[in-house]
UniProtKB/TrEMBL annotation:
EC numbers, comma separated: 1.15.1.1
UniProt GO MF annotations: manganese ion binding; superoxide dismutase activity
Organism: Cerastoderma glaucum (Lagoon cockle)
UniProt KW keywords: Metal-binding, Oxidoreductase
Pfam family, one: Sod_Fe_C
Name of the molecule in the record: superoxide dismutase
GO cellular component: mitochondrion
SUPFAM superfamilies reported in the protein's UniProt record: Fe,Mn superoxide dismutase (SOD), C-terminal domain (SSF54719)
């Protein structure tokens, strides 16, 4: 988790995804901003230290927060 965290904070990390991931986010959440809002809400709701994740559910074929 920390390796991903520090990569996102790098000068070239983060930003809005492109390509297939961008398409999946739009299909599953409507927009990148809506996905960020749902991920933020889920992450803020974690008591204590923890991580919010965007993952792929292979059974449903959808992204999930």
């Amino acid at each position: 988790n920390h390796s991903v965290f520090w990569t996102v904070l790098s000068p070239n990390g983060g930003g809005e995804p492109k390509g297939d991931l961008s398409d999946l986010i739009k299909d599953n959440f409507g927009s990148f901003d809506q996905m960020k809002a749902e991920l933020t809400a889920a992450s803020v709701g974690i008591q204590g230290s923890g991580w919010g994740w965007l993952g792929w559910n292979p059974v449903s074929g959808r992204l999930r927060v």
